[in-house]
Amino acid sequence: MKLTVRRRLVVPTAVAVAVAGGGAALVARHGASSSTQYRTAVATLGTVTQTISLSGNLVPVGETDLDFGSSGRVTAVDVHPGQAVTAGQPLATIDPAALQAALTQAQATLASAQARLSLDQAGPSAQSLAQSQAGVRTAQTQLQSAQTALADTQLIDQSSTGAAQNALTAAQSKLSADQANGCPSASPPPSGCTTPQQIGADTTALTAARNGISSAQAKAQQSEHQAQSQLSAAQVQLQNAQASLTALQQGTSAQQVQIDQSQVQIDQISVGNAQTALTQATLTAPVNGVVGQVNVSVGQIAPGGSSSSTGSSSGQGGASSAASSGTSTGSSTGSSTTHSIVILTPGAFQVVGSVSDAQVNRVAVGQRARITVAGATQSITGTVTGIAPEATVTSGVATFPVTVVLDGSNPSLHAGVSASIAVVVNQVVHVLTVPSSAIRPSGGADSVQTLVDGQPQTLPVTIGASDALHTQVVSGLNEGDTVVIATVTSSVPTPNASSLLGGGRGGGRGAGGAGRAVGG
Questions:
Q1: What's this model's pTM, rounded to 2 decimal places?
Q2: What does the alpha-carbon distance between residue 239 and residue 40 come to, in Å, rounded to a whole number?
Q3: What is the DSSP string of 3-57?
Q4: Neighbouring residues of 79: CB distance < 8 A, sequence distance ≥ 6
Q5: Does residue 467 sit in helix, strand or coil?
Q6: What separation in angstroms does the CA of 43 have from each of 50, 263, 430, 470?
Q7: Mean pLDDT across 453-469
Q8: Regarding beta strands 72-77 and 282-284, do their DSSP bridges make them parallel or antiparallel, or are they unpaired?
Q9: pLDDT in tens, 96-126
Q10: Cross-sheet strand order for the sheet of 282-284
Q11: Residues 112, 116, 118: CA angle, nearest 5 degrees
């Protein structure tokens, strides 16, 4: 009889399969009919960056607001909105005649005060007495001139305000008449009635008339205030001149000399102010930039004011008004004040987003941020420059506006474009990290799983900072340790000779089939 010998096939009990990508690996342990796979990663040194997300729209910064030093009739406007200008370039001019006259008068007053001081220091004389009397007469003349100027200003302001009021009355009357004669809804409308389009035009005209009277009243108040100030100054000068004459008649004293010196100082300030006002009769660009607004026109009486610079732009230039530092806010200055000309620094932008009341204490001025503009593929760095001290409450929800200024100049960007912001509120560098999915919180404690002889083993860990992908491990692990980030189970067919020898369909699939993640 022939003996038949059968060979036994030796089936390995464990198979390790490497998984490419991300430093992770897939480890499989086989049983009779199923396998357990573990997706793993290695603890490495890295950086964890925690951010808070905001969103908003680009707003230009670096705005320089320019106004004439005193009111006057505009004689030239040399620029238009959107025009590029260079530092020192003339922008607009007011009539300098009145300003030159004021400077001449201030210089004469100063000369008289200086002469009076010299005479008093030299001692009283017939000549000094005569000059002091002449000073009184000059001060009286200046007072009369100031009174006349105030009266003339009031008449002019009354006329302009009256004209604006008449225009408002006429616009109101026309709108009322046209509304009373409005066309019925029937089609076609009867002949002679007022169309809705005409009523709309009447409404627009009425709004313009209301704006006109508001502007006229504001200008009248400003011009009368200036004229009243000049009158008050003239009254003070007359009082001083009369006091000087009285003191001279009684004999020069040390006190009188001090009075004369004070008057000289006052008159020197007046001359300086008059000179500045004359110099500022022509507005010039203090910096290179782009004209954002032009709110004056030839023939208009432009109000006086002080120019200012907001945002990152500052400085003084040419004959423009002295620029004073301002604050950077959501939409430039955030003020309703209308300036004669506004210059924008090209490429300078900021974004204002909002954070919740639970997050506001994590944000601080000076923190860095990444700004991604709509349509852009790369982010731009920036800095948190402002946090609103008071919340904005909408439907019971409190949020705090946060201002982020973009770094450098970005001339290719456009105001109003939406942008997302990631403010870096915490960052730790060169620390031990693992994928955040490897951390297993339980009962207020944290742990990870490592593989020992193919079996998962739980280790307690202390964690620190965490972002969307990685978590810092403060203690419990060492660099290079392997941690489990997912557990995958799948059913596999019972091995047989043909599958192990490569025969039949499905040979070689093993544990590489579909699985189900049950951990990590």
A1: 0.42
A2: 94
A3: PP--PPPP--SEEEE---STT-EEEEEE-SSEEEEEEEEE-EEEEEEEEEEEEEE
A4: 85, 89, 91, 92, 291, 294, 341
A5: coil
A6: 19, 81, 12, 10
A7: 88
A8: unpaired
A9: 888 888 889 999 999 999 998 887 777 667 7
A10: 282-284, 90-94, 72-77, 301-302
A11: 120
